[in-house]
Amino acid sequence: MFPFKFRYKGIEQVKTKFGKIKCYRFDPVVEPGRIFKSEDDMTMWISADQNLLPIAVKFDMLVSSLHCELEEYSNLKYDLKFENN
Questions:
Q1: 63 confidence band (pLDDT: 50, 70, 90)
Q2: DSSP secondary structure, 9-67, as one string
């Protein structure tokens, strides 16, 4: 294990294939160098509800970028509240 720092950036509305959902935005501090240009080149969106489900992650890398989104979910303790697109 190693220490990992996150910067909380507020609440944002994130558009997904299920609809829009309010999410907490965090920017994990990454090490610039071989993969990332700067320490804020990664962003995570976590559902702003009791589930705290990872909704999306974005990586801005030296030669490309990558965006990952929640593809499916099941057996959650609490309902996810999506707004229609």
A1: confident
A2: EEEEEEEETTEEEEEEEEEE---BTTTBSSTT-EEEEEESSSS--EEEEEEE-SS-EEE
Give the Cα separation of 58 and 55 in Å (integer): 11
Task: Convert 56-77 to b/e letters by CB count within 10 Å (16 or more is b).
Answer: bbeebeeeeeeeeebeeeeeee
Whole-angstrom distance, CA of residue 62 vs CA of residue 79 = 38
19-28 and 65-69 beta bridge pairing: unpaired
CA–CA separation, 15 vs 80, rounded Å? 14
Instruction: Pick the more confident residue, 31 or 82.
Output: 82
Question: CA–CA separation, 16 vs 35, rounded Å?
Answer: 27
